[in-house]
Amino acid sequence: MRAKLRFLTTSLILCLCAGCAVNPITGEEELMFMTEQQDVAIGKKYAPEIEKQMGGKINSGSLQNYVDVVGQKIARVSHRRSWDYHFVALNDDSVNALALPGGYIFITKGMLKHLTTESQLAGILAHETAHVVARDTAVLMSREIGIDILLAAVTSKSTSRSVLTAADLTRQILGLRFSRKDERDADLAGLDYMVRAGYDPNGMVETMQMLQNQQQVRPIEFFSTHPAPANRMAYLKARIGSRYRNREGLRTGKEDFRSAVLERLKDN
Questions:
Q1: How would you label 19-38 residue by residue, b for 16+ Cβ within 10 Å and e otherwise?
Q2: How many degrees, rounded to 5, is the angle at CA 232 between CA 82 and CA 227?
């Protein structure tokens, strides 16, 4: 009874505090039901379940460190630089990447195998970082799953029942689909982030082309939560042409990616 009362009190406080938050990427006010602290709590709660359901971390400390270093370069130039970001490579053969609230970002072995440069990796991580910065996942989870359910799972003790609940909710999280506007905003913000971090923005376009080619061969997991890349390549190229056409010395990192990622994946 006390636990139920405590949860109802928490929910009531949350409803009273709900309001608008400014999206730092678009500058627009958006209805937000969760605090930034709750973003972190939810990310921390479900990150282990994401890892579990997607094969665990790739067993290579050097590969994990490389992915994290690239991701941290992106995070340091984002609109939310003070947050604690976690970039993890998962031992899953699907071609996929995803983000949880609070700075938890994942990329699969299947995706890494199809990349050829560090700038392509940076483009994917920058896109997912932009979703975290905009708090897109938090908004979507609140709307599609329900803030009361999410808070109940986060605040519950680690009993067998709560573990099952976490596993079930994680499957729902994996199926969330962003709007086309969310994806466009994340693409363009991610493009800006990767250039600020010193990467060739064409890496993101190359990744979109790779994904389109893979989709023509066989359906890939990435498109269960992301729209097709054809139109996305058009506005990415337009942004590069208008804003970054004359940039020189931006990093591609083909050899570093080969030695740090592709060579390591041969052993996994």
A1: eebebebeeeeeebbbeeeb
A2: 85
Q: What is the DSSP letter of 76?
A: T
> Per-residue pLDDT tens for 95-122?
999 999 999 999 999 999 999 999 999 9
Nearest to 46 by CA among 114, 126, 104: 104
Strand 86-90 relative to strand 104-108, pairing: parallel
Sign of the torsion formed by the C-alpha atoms of 125, 188, 140 and 94: negative
> Token digits for 55?
């094969």
C-beta of residue 190 within 8 angstroms of C-beta of residue 226? no
Contact 146, 34 (CB under 8 A): no
User: pLDDT tens for residues 79-93?
Assistant: 999 999 999 999 999
Identify which of 124, 114, 120, 123 has the alpha carbon closest to the alpha carbon of residue 262. Answer: 114
Q: Which long-range contacts (CB under 8 A, 24 or more apart) does 52-56 make?
A: 52/167, 53/167, 53/170, 53/171, 53/174, 54/90, 54/91, 54/92, 54/94, 54/106, 54/108, 55/90, 55/91, 55/92, 55/93, 55/109, 56/90, 56/91
Decide if pLDDT at 45 tops 80. yes
Give the pLDDT band (50/70/90) at residue 11.
very low
Burial of 10 (0-12, 13-18, 19+ CB in 10 A): middle
| Domain locations along the chain | 38-265
Q: pLDDT higher for 29 or 121?
A: 121
